Amino acid sequence: MDVLVALALVLGGHSGSPVDRVLPEVVSTRIRLLTVREGMSQEETIRRLGLKGRSPTVAAATMTNSRFIYPIGRAHELTIWYSLRDGPGISHGLTQATLSAKDRP
After folding, report:
1. I need a surface site. Which of 28, 46, 64, 87 has the fewest CB within 10 A?
2. Axis-axis angle for helices 2-12, 25-33 (nearest 10)
3. Distance separating alpha carbons of residues 63 and 34, to the nearest angstrom
């Protein structure tokens, strides 16, 4: 069953798929995190995590690193880090993606 859910999320690649309508956003995001790999482009990472068309609440970048934070549900946030890839030109790849509970005051 887990394989079928993960496959449906990967093939869907966007929010609004039937699986997203059944599972809470935090659960579907955790499953989607299993499909991303280090070095993946920002576009591919966003597509696989179902974040296409959504804006991050925090975006911070330098030439070598960048970090984006997206709200997930009411009480969680997804932080995604990218860093400069080796090779010619400027190209960033996924370094880390972490889903965590929001800090409450």
Report:
1. 87
2. 90
3. 28
What is the C-alpha separation between 6 and 60, in angstroms, rounded? 30
Q: Quote the pTM value.
A: 0.77
Q: What is the pLDDT of residues 72-94, one digit of tens each?
A: 999 999 999 999 988 777 889 99
Rounded CA gap, 105 and 86, in Å? 40
Residue 5, burial from CB neighbour count under 10 angstroms (0-12, 13-18, 19+): middle
* Rounded Cα distance, 5 and 38, in Å: 22
Report which of 92, 86, 96 is spatially closest to residue 38, judged by C-alpha positions: 96
Could you list the beta-strand ranges (E) of 1-105: 58-61, 65-72, 76-84, 92-101
